[in-house]
């Protein structure tokens, strides 16, 4: 299913669901559920006088305003725009309901597959029977929306980067080096394009940020990096994990920060088990200590990386 078809389906299900409640409950709006009329009166007086009360000239109706403080204002705005009508309120709620379902779908799409995102939007659109299709539907869908947003926020790289290994000591820093294996670069006779970390033997290696995985097999002895994993964080930024014993991810896989991507090894041009950790911006290696001062100690100003989901691509 395409994204637009998925959105159309979710919006249609939400509107049909809302229309069912409107048709089913409309006869009772002014007879059985007098609080519906109460909201209408609150909205009318609020629009006219700016005061929370059902009847102009009576004291402020505080309990109602405290229960759902935004709702009387919502009703008052509709009253001022379209006149006093239960149906206008219900239709406006139906549109808000559909919009909320679509927002849930969009949020879910940032942390899961399109299938899961569609299911999340439909689950909200088909939310089990509500007491009545009025104030409470907004409360319920808003709660769902906030929970979804909270979950999504927890998965995005706002908590700072994850450690690439459980522990390590740095055996070689970024930049000019006396190490003869390394190639010439700029003013350096030998240049080290990353930072070398020696961790526990065979230790697990984790992605420092969420992103899209690209796995590279060793390309001969001169290949240097051995088995290595690239994780694309946005269109321009990637991190590399080289000399792995083995990779536990495959190309095209989406990983979260802290996800296991392989095990420390010594494949490629390596003199002993270690992790070569590299950061590239637009293809150019940059000093990992300036990008991740919280991991490796600062030797320069902090460097921001765009959140995942900004059109990562494999090169
Ligand atoms: Zn290295």
Note the main attributes of this structure.
binds zinc ion; 315 residues; 10-stranded antiparallel β-sheet; single chain; 9 helices; 12 strands; two-stranded antiparallel sheet; elongated; alpha+beta; Glucose Permease (Domain IIA)
Largest sheet properties: 10 strands, antiparallel
Approximate helicity band: 25-40%
**Element-level helix/strand string:** HHHHHHHEEEEEEEEEEEEHH
Q: How many strands appear in the DSSP assignment?
A: 12
User: Uncertain runs with pLDDT below 50, 5 residues or more?
Assistant: 299-315
Distance between the termini: 27 Å
Helix/strand class:
alpha+beta
- List the total number of helices: 9
Ligand roster: zinc ion
Number of separate structural domains: 2
Determine Rg (CA atoms, Å).
28 Å
Strand content: 15-25%
- Integer average pLDDT: 79
Shape: elongated
